[in-house]
Amino acid sequence: MRIVLKNAAKAECFCSLFQHIKLFSDHINIMFERSRVYIQSMDSSRVSIFEIDLPATWFDTYELENPATIGISSSMLFKVLNTRDKAQEMCFMVQNEDPDKLEVHFTSDNKSVFDKHFELPLMELECDVMDIPVTDSQAELTLPSMNFANLIAQLRLFGETLEIKCDEEKIEMYSLSSELGKMTVDIDIDDLTEYSINEGESIKLSFSLTILQNICMYSKITKEIELKLTENFPLSLTYKLGEGGGRMSFYLAPKLQDD
């Protein structure tokens, strides 16, 4: 297996994908399939699932004799990626004669930047990939990811639960607690990049602000975030990773609402 990333913007994005994964999972399986690189894991509280989907065409070189799955420490992988200079291209290799190690190489034509080489031990992890059903969402909205992250951080100051209401006229988000009071955010649908909701539909759902705040740690990897809401189903949040079809998605189970 040999995979190379030369595009500077994509290499930077790839490194950023692993920056906060330890907030969700200490160890991850990376699945190298013929058509893509795929990662899926569930957080320790079993409330959210994240997945990373990068098509083979997202990379400059994608050489794979056979599909392979490698288990690795998420924090150790980021420590390695964090040593990369922005001028360096990235190469990932697993040798047939030494399948228990992942080789990572950072190289550059710039002689003032020293090449770096790593060998990381791999581990065997359970590899139960969950089938995430495709559902017709009742409401979809797209907005600037930094704006959404700032709102979530502010709402978290007033409680642990996000209440979100959507109808054809507006979107309302709020959080409250008896000790701290209440914060409400009214979002005019004209201020969103995209918004759609089933005709006559009104939705009210609750989600963990703590986990949403962790998800929003990725707000800098792309300009916008896409949310899909459906009653009795997890909230879908997606960062689309530029051209080429790559994406990072999260699925957050709703909280039970008091009647």
Automatic annotation (TrEMBL):
It comes from viral metagenome. This is Proliferating cell nuclear antigen PCNA N-terminal domain-containing protein. Belongs to the PCNA family. Residues 132-255 form the Proliferating cell nuclear antigen PCNA C-terminal domain. Gene3D superfamilies: 3.70.10.10. Keywords: DNA-binding. Signal peptide: none annotated. GO terms for molecular function: DNA binding; DNA polymerase processivity factor activity. Residues 11-128 form the Proliferating cell nuclear antigen PCNA N-terminal domain. CDD domains: PCNA. GO terms for biological process: leading strand elongation; regulation of DNA replication. The keyword DNA-binding applies.
